[in-house]
Amino acid sequence: MTKTALIIGVTSQDGSYLADLLLEKGYRVVGTIRRNTTYQKPNIQHLIGKIIIEAADLIDGESIARLLRDYQPDEVYNIAAQSVPADSWSHPLYTGEVTALGVVRVMEAVRHFAPQARVYQATSREIFGHVNADAATESTPIDANNPYGIAKAYAHMMTRCYRESYGLFACGGILFNHESPRRSLHFVTRKITAAVACIKNQVANPPLDELGRPLITPGGKLKLGFLEARRDWGYAKEYVEAMWLMLQNDEPKDYVIGTNSSYSVADACRIAFAHVGLDWREHVVSDEALLRPTEITVLQGDYSLAEKELGWRPRTSFEQLMQIMVDADLARFQ
Ligand code: NAP
User: Is the C-beta atom of 199 inside 6 A of ligand 1?
Assistant: First the structure.
């Protein structure tokens, strides 16, 4: 029998790759978008006509409940969030409302209207904020230190709470950073690869950043924050496979998904610029105005449990990932 999956936040990087994966597997896919005043949804252009699109908002519990009632999905993936840690300082209340409380609206809707559904909740490595260790596992203590991480910590613990209190098949994916050509321009890897493409192709009108400023200055410079910040970066297309595998497991659990390696922002610049024969040091400057009020400590994602129990492991190196992203942006920004 055809299975139905509900993806809350299908316009996202992860939601769109997940829709691709589930369609390949023969699912009927229902994906939610938010009502807003612009119609540009680049990540789902190729999905139009292949998935059912519904409007829903994590702030509006009834819009979520209606979908659970009407579609009785077998699997629910809550991918949606105010997903930008850097923006969470300027929007702490909104971040809490969507990224934390939004999860309770999803869990309540599942509990009341489709308790048989298996639920994947996107949590984040940012729940570990201050933790000082080489690598994080599922038992690393939660110690978030920014409004986004704290909202995700709440989401993570609520997922566990609904699993333990009501017996929901609910899994929390503690995902480390993952990138792709579908990554939003809010995030540093995409800023870098889009800037590389615009500089290489001498694009006259580069895309705007999240504050509406051209991504590169008239002098051809890309401004970034802390260049020595290190992250564990993997390929989003592979990370959505882990989400699906979690819901096929015999029992619901939380899993760390990462690559157990880390690279700095400067490394990302070096690889991306070198891919088109440029020296990053001539094009990238660190701007103090872009520093985060608090940095998270360096931490890698130890995915041993996922490898052992789900058979999941990352396959694309960070260098390959940056090159895939640069190539996609070279084609996009002509
Ligand atoms: P993303 O591309 O930034 O997309 C966020 C999604 O959330 C978009 O579909 C957005 O819709 C939707 N959304 C925002 N506010 C909403 C609201 N009030 N109601 C309904 N939908 C709303 O996200 P991503 O990078 O794919 O990440 C997916 C999830 O994993 C997020 O929860 C993120 O926090 C988490 N995560 C991501 C990473 C990573 O490195 N990518 C790491 C750990 C955890 P619009 O298109 O309308 O804006």
Answer: no
